[in-house]
Amino acid sequence: EVQLVESGGGLVQPGGSLRLSCAASGFTFSTSEMNWVRQAPGKGLEWVSYVSSSGRTIYYADSVKGRFTISRDNAKNSLYLQMNSLRADDTAVYYCARAEYSDYTYVKYFDYWGQGTLVTVSS
Amino acid sequence: DIQMTQSPSSLSASVGDRVTITCRASQSISSHVNWYQQKPGKAPNLLIYAASSLQSGAPSRFSGSGSGTDFTLTISSLQPEDFAIYYCQQSFSTPLLTFGGGTKVEIK
User: Fold this and answer.
1) Peptide bond into B40 cis (omega under 30)
2) Parallel, antiparallel, or unpaired: how do β-strands B70-75 and A10-12 relate?
3) Set of chain A residues whose Cβ sits within 8 Å of the Cβ of B33
4) Angstrom distances, CA of residue B103 to CA of A109, B10, B99
5) Measured in whole angstroms, how far is the alpha carbon of residue A109 from the centre of its chain?
6) Could you tell me if B87 and B100 are in contact, meaning their C-beta atoms sit under 8 angstroms apart?
7) Which residue among B31, B43, B100 sits closest to A107, beta carbon to beta carbon?
8) Contact between residue A54 and residue A73 where contact means Cβ atoms under 8 Å apart
9) A108·B94 Cβ contact <8 A
10) pLDDT of chain B along its 108 residues, tens only?
11) Which residues in chain B have Cβ-Cβ distances shorter than 8 Å to A101?
């Protein structure tokens, strides 16, 4: 059974830092592309960051670029998100999600998601 | 950035109704659209990928159609467990993916 389990969320003051983790099991993590997606309370979904299977290719949404760092440890089947200089508008549930691609048309989609971890930025 | 505009933002329907949700892209994105269902307090769940392919395990009453800029998610006969929020997502501009604003399906 595929499982993605996030941890590391909590309450942090503006300007503070937090490191999220996502533990993967039930699939070959080292060959999977991974993402972080967040959802502010009562709002929609926002893609945050992407990391290739090797960890060498990384992308960020403009809203977090320069403040967040995605990484992975394939030996530990784990994905991370280091969040620095946190702001109130970073308050959200953060999900890790695996990317997959359709046959022939090569359309990317997120087939497995974790349960999410809540990050609250407040003084 | 490619914008995804979903409509309606909410709807009320009865069990057994046929429900249609639309998503319009700000530019042509071929078939690079996926649909997710999200229930309160839960993670999104993939229903349809590549515009019209049913994800394994998703009920057959869900279907997707469209290409270019206009896409549709249809629930052929609404069931009690289908009351949720539905999101479209474009992956044409991967890895910079964007979601629609969501459609909340409520009980009439």
Assistant:
1) no
2) unpaired
3) 107
4) 19, 5, 11
5) 15
6) yes
7) B31
8) no
9) yes
10) 899 999 999 999 999 999 999 999 999 999 999 999 999 999 999 999 999 999 999 999 999 999 999 999 999 999 999 999 999 999 999 888 999 999 999 988
11) none
